[in-house]
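FORM 12-B: Structure-to-Sequence Request
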């Protein structure tokens, strides 16, 4: 994940495409209920960028305001979940599954594990956070823990 990298992605039908330039902010697995519902999966994996680093290069996605400070973006044609936009802090989190090269990024941690499904077993060795993870800028998050592995 170098600072001069360009990342691209698209929805299932290809109508909505995105591009991000620069270093990703973070790469995370989120287990919160809203991410589960919007992604249709047990958890959502996304890569975060400053909002100004992300451009929509074809059609723009449709936004659904899922909370006071966040919107979920999806393709108006095929319905693919594209990204999570943290409006209040100015970050865009495209979902890893939309990347043209999903191997170009590697998840760093799990967050909102207090909402994780009981049958999801975390044995990948990544740090886990009950809610938010601390940012690289030193902002507070909760303490990380290592899940017990049977």
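FORM 12-B RESPONSE
SEQUENCE OUT:
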């Amino acid at each position: 994940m170098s600072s001069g990298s360009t990342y691209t992605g698209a929805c299932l039908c290809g109508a909505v495409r995105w591009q991000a330039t620069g270093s990703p902010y973070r790469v995370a697995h989120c287990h919160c209920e809203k991410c589960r519902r919007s992604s249709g999966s047990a958890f959502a994996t996304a890569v975060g960028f400053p909002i100004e680093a992300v451009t929509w290069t074809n059609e723009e996605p449709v936004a659904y305001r899922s909370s006071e400070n966040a919107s979920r973006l999806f393709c108006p044609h095929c319905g693919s979940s594209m990204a999570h936009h943290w409006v209040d802090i100015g970050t865009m989190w495209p979902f890893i599954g939309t990347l043209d090269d999903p191997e170009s990024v590697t998840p760093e941690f799990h967050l909102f594990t207090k909402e994780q499904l009981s049958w999801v077993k975390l044995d990948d060795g990544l740090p886990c956070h009950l809610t938010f993870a601390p940012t690289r800028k030193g902002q507070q998050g909760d303490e990380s823990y290592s899940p017990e592995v049977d």
